[in-house]
Amino acid sequence: VQLQASGGGLVQPGGSLRLSCAASGSISGIVLMGWYRQVTGKQRLWLADIKKSGQAMYADSVKDRFTISRDNAKNTLYLQMSSLNPDDTAMYFCYAYPGVWGQGTQVTVSS
Questions:
Q1: Taking the mean position of all CA atoms in its chain, how far away is CA 12?
Q2: Angle at 82 between CA 76 and CA 52, to 5 degrees
Q3: pLDDT (tens digit, 0 to 9) for every residue of the chain, 111 residues total?
């Protein structure tokens, strides 16, 4: 399967965005999918993942602000982001176990 992330852009502090990650094939059998982000020159950081069962886990930095979900019928992974702040500015990547990455979508939080 291949992944295509989209939905990034420029948003003001306190705003919201929803990222999408469209898969080229069925995701219903993928046991784990997730989102990471990376600032240029820094390590890629895990944000959230969601199991096939729907169980989700979050990094402390985004817990209560971000929500991960998957729509198996649409073969799409989502990341709903709210209360965004400048520290959330990064390239966001989706991931499917084992080892498939999307190309990234840029999120910039600035006034």
A1: 19
A2: 30
A3: 999 999 999 999 999 999 999 999 999 999 999 999 999 999 999 999 999 999 999 999 999 999 999 999 999 999 999 999 999 999 999 999 999 999 999 999 999
